[in-house]
Amino acid sequence: MPPATWLILADDLTGAADCAIAFARRGLEASVGWYAGAAGETAGAVLAIDADSRRLPPAQAAARHVALLRAHHRPGAGLIKKIDSTLRGQPAAELAATHQALRAAGQPMLAILAPAFPATGRTTRDGRVRIDGMPLEATPLWARDHTYASADLGEILAQAGLAARLLPLDTLRAGHAALAASLRAALAEGLDAVICDAEAVEDLAALARASLGLAGQVYWAGSGGIAAALAAALPDATEAPRAPTLPPARGGVLVVVGSIAEASRAAAARLAAEDAASRFSIPAATLRAGPAAPDWAALSTGIAASIGGGRDTLVEIAADPAADLAQGAALAEGLAALLRPAAARMGGLFATGGETACALLTQLGVHGIRLLEEVEPGVPLGITQGALEVPVMTKAGAFGHDATILRSLARLRGFPRAPAPAVNQ
């Protein structure tokens, strides 16, 4: 019988959200929490937790996932170990540690590894990841940020000590009975994982339908693609409910681009080119220096004034080809501190880069996000939970296109808003 509740463990905030939103779109109450906040305070049938482990060494990332698994996973709940669709971070170490913890708890389950997310151009062929048909190793994403020697999933799992078998496209497309038989054979053989090719949404849909019947014996590892397929395959799945009513409008929307990925930079440039938002570019040196930086006060005050005046406002970390990606967390914390006066007055938040969004929301006393719907693939909309209640949209840095931010802001303005509370005279 399919699980009634789900736990999603992710290595960053945007990944947690774009998996959980798939279930919210199908009528399940879903929320996102994070390691630095009170993740246990969120409620609903689906809980996604950002372990904030993308930049951690393998052993630390693995330990963090095991701790969250032990604290939040319950027998009978479906489990998704969300991994980056381009294999950033420590997916193999996290998956191996999750697998070992399940076995130690008497749950010897098979991992169904399916990182493909066809709606965003991520596919898997012959056990190797591709982006828009190009081998992952040949892309700028891989050149800038990669953990493994290649994108061969079999080799990556073998190095982590996991015995796996490839389920090629022919198997996924052979029909329900044949695919389900292949999964049962892997279980009977005692394999740790199966690696699943997928080039289309239909491939993941077939995999979800065949594997849901094995709930309790399998768990899933992948990106938003497999989460969407599983949510759609649930027997009571429905289409998205009617448009939500958002909290009363306050100031302008704060658009934060903390990612250096080309897709996010192009979307920010398009937003500025169409004069749809005031634009502030923050030097990395300013964020490293903190309030002692000579331009800190002027930038923080200017951004807050723009937001408070009702103007949508774009804030981005200035592009730096020589930037050290290991400094990402420190820069995100610095940016959150700079933006805190503005964020307290914002009418909404659009954030690319999970570290930045998580750092900013945590500083504002937010411990989670209640998810509502998906404005486009990989861009979920939710309402913050905690000391501040505002609409928030998150996007993984490499997702989307140059019109993503513009379209998302237009969609946000199209939702009905609750009336502002009356002011006593």
UniProtKB/TrEMBL annotation:
Residue span, Four-carbon acid sugar kinase nucleotide binding domain: 254-404
Four-carbon acid sugar kinase N-terminal domain segment(s): 7-230
Species for this entry: Teichococcus aerophilus
Entry keyword set: ATP-binding, Carbohydrate metabolism, Kinase, Nucleotide-binding, Transferase
Single annotated GO MF: kinase activity
InterPro entries for this protein: 4-carb_acid_sugar_kinase_N, 4-carb_acid_sugar_kinase_N_sf, NBD_C, NBD_C_sf
Highest taxon of the lineage: Bacteria
Transmembrane segments: none
Record protein name field: Four-carbon acid sugar kinase family protein
Family: Belongs to the four-carbon acid sugar kinase family.
